[in-house]
Amino acid sequence: MIQKEIKTSFEEYGSIEELNAEDRELATEAITAMQGAYAPYSHFHVGAAVRISNGQIVRGANQENAAFPSGLCAERTAMFAAGARYPDKEMRSIALVGGVYGRITEQPATPCGACRQVMAQYQTKAGKPMSVIMIGAHKVWKFEKVDDILPLIFDSI
Ligand code: THU
Q: SS3 sequence, 129-146?
């Protein structure tokens, strides 16, 4: 038997103001995207913004539905929109932020497992790392690649 280990690392910032200009712009777009949330059940508004390879930013927000499984997270709304509208572009970075009635959480919002899997596959499609920025009121986390938040991605088919 060999004991193995998976390690992860990320950067922590005090606010989006400390990010580089590109990431700050993406984070600001994610915060703006919260306004598009439709969350009549959870009242938790999530915004996401994806940077694609031509520099454009595609926004998304969570959309809920009375038939609960029919809704969709902000991150997948943004990524599927980017994938559908710009199929020949790569997704380079994604930022996300959430909060009850749009009041940003203290701790950075962390993406659900299904969104991580979708991020991982678009990263594989691009063949380049996709960074993930998680925004909280007084704390921001940046992961350089999706592997850092989802090791051992399912990509066997
Ligand atoms: N939500 C997201 O938009 N992204 C996540 O990564 C986790 C959860 C949404 C789904 C639902 O509309 C609300 O937040 C509460 O779970």
A: CCEEEEECCCCEEEECCH
Q: What pLDDT is attached to residue 153?
A: 85
Domain ranges of the chain: 11-148
Q: What is the pLDDT of residue 155?
A: 76
Residue 126 has pLDDT above 90, yes or no: yes
Angle at the Cα of 76 from the Cα atoms of 73 and 82, rounded to 5 degrees: 140
pLDDT of residue 72: 98
* Residue whose CA is at the smallest distance from ligand 1 atom 6: 111
Is 75 one of the annotated active-site residues of the chain? yes
- Written as six digits, the tokens of 131 are 């960074």
Name the band, by pLDDT with cuts 50, 70 and 90, for residue 99: very high
In whole angstroms, what is the distance from residue 51 CA to residue 79 CA?
10
Residue 156 pLDDT greater than 90, yes or no? no
Determine the distance separating the centroid of ligand 1 and the alpha carbon of 111, expressed in angstroms.
8
What class has domain 11-148? alpha beta
Q: Assign 3-class secondary structure to 47-70.
A: EEEEEECCCCEEEEECECCCCHHH
